[in-house]
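ok so I'm stuck.
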Amino acid sequence: MLENVLYRRGFLLLPAATRYEELPFLEQWDDREVGDWRLLTHPETPVMIHTGVGQRTVIALGDVFVAHGEAPIEECLDRFARGDLPVLEDLSGRFALLAVAGPEVRAVQDPIGAQTVFTSERHRALASHAALLAECLDLPRSPSMSRLMQMPEQKAKTTRFLPGDRTLFDDVRLLVPNTEIDLATGRTHRYWPYAPLPETSRDDVLAVWDEYFERYARHLDGYEEVVLGLTGGVDSRGMIAALRSKGVRIRYESWAAMKDEESSRIPAMIEHLGGEHRWIDIRQRVETPEGQDLAEAGRRAAGYTRGTPTMPALVAQDAKPGGVFIYGHGGGVTAGPYSRGAKRFLPEDPLERAYYLNAGPQRKTATPEYRHVNRRAFQEFLKRADYGGDLHGVDPGLLLYWEHRMANWAALQIAVHAIGITAHAGLNSRRIYASFWGLPGSQHGKELHAELIARYDPVLAAL
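replied:
not stuck anymore, here's the structure
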């Protein structure tokens, strides 16, 4: 069974002439030649191949749908083939897009980076998982990142992930959301924001929110079952209220990794919502051969940065083959917790701010080596993500929460979950993020989320 679930729903793109490790599980993967490239995809990976203008082939890997506007997906892919990157504001899901023309490949991913894309500059290759790329290309582990994972400062962090766009492997980097990579050269460039964000009103936020969930609900019709992570926070409640108002039937799952203030709300919420609900004990291990295989697949899905995850085996117990799990990720992006407005004590310099936020309280007692490894990683991250360029007035802290925390911690959480069941980030829209950020003053935050919940379900809002 292990070979069936390793890098489940994943993909690998290599130059056609590249020699790579003939790993046994890859024998089951679909193998295609596209231009001068070889594309391997897990049997469960959705693949859409579209021939766009100028004979560029656009490949959509994963789950993509049009969340805003009236253009069909084919038109959106044509625009992407022409280099019209603002069209990506209209798309959502968990996906990567490749534009291939002979030896050239351009790659981007969904707004929040729920579908991770990892690249190797030396080998001109990309993959859905860092460990997949490392296994196939026989890449060594990074000594500095290996040491970092063992440092007391790193182990003391409540939410642990590697700094910047680093992975546990040399020459494997995470593609940062809102940047596009030219695989032939290894160069990245930022494409969002491409203009100053327009000032918005609360009505604008409500309108774009409603459009997104109307389209998302239609997309979810294609799944056998919709499962949503239920917490007492406003993020999951906002998604639940909107999706239920659009007629989506939901099964709920919760686990004990939440504050008592939130978990105490769950019983009343379930009584009101009336759907099937399951508590998951993440300390429980499924001690069957299948459970152990899923745990090992989870280790590799996280690039060996999260121990041996129990979640894939636990969620797979009740998962239907055609089901989807929705995380509440994305709500934090709208709230802007890393902005200067929310944290006025943050340093102005992007490098110091990134280090300050990532290290947390440990920065006060950190060793010189810990500081050096983190700062060097962030120097490279900020360069590749072009934080020194024109951000069109957007607070770098807003982008750091999105492009670093979400693209690392949240995306790897989704990648691990996807070993057991297809998984999404529920609030995955640049247009929604921009509408919140465009509000004057400090209007965005929990208060507006509460207003959104009340619009669809006043009872749920009051719980």
